[in-house]
Amino acid sequence: MANLLSVEQLRIRRAEYTNRILTGSFVIIMSASLIAFLAILPAYILIRSERVSLESQNQAIAESVSASQSNSDRDDLIDTRQRIEVIDKTLNSSGVALQIVRSLVELRPEDLYIQSIQYTAGKRDTTRISGVVESRARIQEYISSLNTSGLFDSVSVPVSALADAADGIFVITASGGTDL
Fold first, then answer.
1. Which residue in 140, 127, 130 sits closest to 174, CA to CA?
2. CA-closest candidate to residue 130, choices 146, 147, 116
3. DSSP calls for 83-149
4. Among 14, 74, 93, 179, which residue has the fewest nearby CB atoms (within 10 Å)?
């Protein structure tokens, strides 16, 4: 077998083939890179736009939370003011109420235990006294001492409370103006 090409031409041909292979490989690698870039680009754009959207939503939520918090603060302030008004009314009327409670405790017999006192101020002040007693006689004694004290215009025991008095539980309602 004889080589028709000279050594110089053979070297040039091999360089051309090598260059073609390198150029082809480069084109293939660059094409694959371009395809990969183009495949990833929409995902990147989508993620970026979602991030911007989420940031704007977070900012809007933060503003709305701030606005609702100020509304909540305003509601809390209104509620607090209403409570202060109720406490103020109670403190203004507590002078009479405390004197009535003191008198109710001082007038009670020894075996009579007061569990609660409810005082309602108004045109006709009403006081409701409930507790436990050992005998009905002590309830009658307490009612007569309340009537003679002049604290109340009328003192009464509800009929249902008299039925429960056998168990030792009593309720007395006293109403009317006081001169304390």
1. 127
2. 116
3. HHHHHHHHHHHHHHHHHHHHHHHHHS-TTEEEEEEEEE-SSS-EEEEEEEES-HHHHHHHHHHHHHH
4. 179
Residue 13 CA from chain centroid, whole number: 86
Can you give the residue ranges of every domain in the chain? 7-93, 108-175
Please count the other Cβ atoms lying within 10 Å of the Cβ belonging to residue 80. Answer: 10
Percent of the chain whose predicted confidence (pLDDT) is above 70: 82
Once rounded to an integer, what is the mean pLDDT over residues 121-139? 83
- Averaged pLDDT for residues 100-104: 79
Beta-carbon contacts of residue 166 (< 8 Å; ≥ 6 apart): 136
Which residue bears the tokens 């009593």? 170
Output the CA angle 172-107-163, nearest 5 degrees.
25
Residue 169, classed as helix, strand or coil, is: strand
Q: Residues 34-47: what's their mean pLDDT?
A: 90
Name the residue with tokens 């933060």.
62
> Sheet containing 126-133: which strands, arranged edge to edge?
112-120, 126-133, 169-175, 154-156
